[in-house]
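Possible regression after last week's pipeline update?

I re-ran a chain I had predicted before the update to compare outputs. Posting the input and the new output here so someone can diff against the archived version. Not blocking, just want to make sure nothing changed silently.
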Amino acid sequence: MLGPASKRQEEMLKSDADITIIGGAAGSGKSYVLNLIPLRYIHDPNFTGVCFRRTTKQLRGQGGIWQTAKNIYNQLPKNMRPTFRETDLTAIFPNGASIAYCHLEHEKNAVDHQGLQYTLELWDELTQFSFYQFEYLQSRLRSDADIPSRTVASCNPDPDSWVREFIDWWLDEDGYPDDSKRGKLRYYVRRDDNFIWASNPEDLKDYLDDDEEPLSVEFIAANIYDNPPCMKKNPGYLSFLKGLNKVEKARLLYGNWNVRPEGANYFKREDLIKAEKVPVNTVCCRAYDKAGTAPSDVNKYPDRTASIKMYRTPDNEFFIAGEFHHTFFDVRQPDVFGRFAYRPGKRDNIILNQAKHDGEHCPIIMPLDPGSAGVTEFQESAKKLAIHGFKVYKDPVPSMRSKLQRFMPFSAAVENGLVHIVEDTFTNKATLEAFYKELEAFDGTRSGKLRKDDWPDAVASAYNYLSNVRNVRIVCRNQTNTETLAKKILEKV
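New output (post-update):
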């Protein structure tokens, strides 16, 4: 008999939120539930559903979502069983209702659905898709069916995915699902690329037009314990999950969204030494990784200009600080300071504001990209700051080295306990968390749509510069006992 295997799966099936996100751990029966959900709507001949997987291989492969669908729908009574069309992976029910299974391997594949209409969109492993793909396909949610169009998505935890931030409210501080928020809806509207959330839709009315309503969202966490058939059929799978290393067990067995596999990156925040303040008698610099593109329909996720301040003591210990000027943020993400995506004019004005905030004693480190264009860009930036009395230096590490090569000296210093961080200088918690997450996600590859390397590049430049600069110690002597000019002056006092 078809139906939910647990109370949690029943909650997934009964959810009527505009966007329902389910799962968050391995073995919870996500693919099974996804294929049950269309059965709520196939009585309507105008129902059109679509299920997305990132690649065709994932769709058609052994145990994939298409095979799971056929196994489930073939258990229906004969008069309700669909015809399975293998050419385009579509299940067509006797009354005309249908659901197609499609890949979105490339970003541009989202546009393949332009002009189409869907009653229900299913996303298998949502964290593998970009937010652009998800957002664009939401515009296809309209149909002639008598039921409201909606979205249901499954996922496993991924701390670097946009989904992590999207479901943040339903998680506790450690990244585990917060059971006290189970079954509760949240509502949002988007304005100027920002999410505005509320627990009550009435609280969003000031942001809405008269004919507009906010979207409702529900996150329903589940794990293998919510899928008794899986544990019965595969008794060794639970033992396998329990036998994983600490990080993978937290992710796949208990659904933690904060932890990251060991060895996946070259930085761990736990290796930094927390400091209350920067000590005296240090040299400092502020380093930048510069970009000059603003988000657009063609490039929604451009690289950002990012900056960090760093100090070095005479004993060769390093201190990271934010100390950002109040204008150093992007209006599209106003709670995070120290990075933005603006065109050169506005970018350079913010850099100048920051330089005045830091003072003339703080050198500015800029990247020098290869080629004549890179030289020209560096020279122009240096001139704009020099006329105001600021000193600009190039990153001492050759730009032709890989990003990982440039980052590794800093990475080694962190691991060896030579780097401190003054967390209170990062304006707010959101800025500090964004800084940590970007460094933790860095794996040496270049920036992509979801994973950026702007702060890692800036940190590498700051560390590499300070590693080559000389500290000038302040020499303190007992002037009254030393044969100096000061002794004669002090004797007369």
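Follow-up from reviewer: compared with the archived run. The radius of gyration is 28 Å. Marking as no regression found.
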